[in-house]
Amino acid sequence: MSTFAELPDDALVRHCQERLPDDARAFEALVTRYREQVYATAYRMMGNAPEAEDLTQEVFIKVYRSIKRFRGEAAFSTWLYRITVNTCLDSLDKRQRRPQRVDSDFIESEETGLPRIGQPGEMSPEQAVLRRELIECIRETMMALQARERLLLTLRDVQGLEYQKIADILNIGMSALKMRIHRARLAFRQIFARICEEFLSST
Prior knowledge:
CATH topology of the largest domain: Rna Polymerase Sigma Factor, Chain: A
Shape: elongated
């Protein structure tokens, strides 16, 4: 007999709808499967670990409370991302869409399209300094973007979601999505050039 961890999303959802709150094993399997992805999205949107952790918990509380009303019109992962996105945007609205504190390792793993200097352990001291400066420049640039621009770059360029998946999450058409992502990338490059002018001139 398959364990809950081996079951597909739709089977876990059905089990939740039939058995919660008496049997939470299927729900716990969904949390285990998606917690890291939810946290990563919240972390890159909010800019710091404590708030991302709080929002991750909030997202799964919302899922727990509403999963019996989930009708499967979209994939569970799409529905979950939609809840995550809306929860982050609601939180940003409450503080005018700006992070209160940004962790030093924020967006260190992002695929930004910018030149790679190397990884720790394989760099000279000078390269290590340049890498830290680049990370700081990228972080400041991402936080200077509008929240929805940062969201689009997080979903597409950082997490690598397919365009159709993002369109489903945001409930918009493909043409509109591609235009918004294009504009977000332009905004990123423009802000990066302004904020990081000193870095660019030194490389």
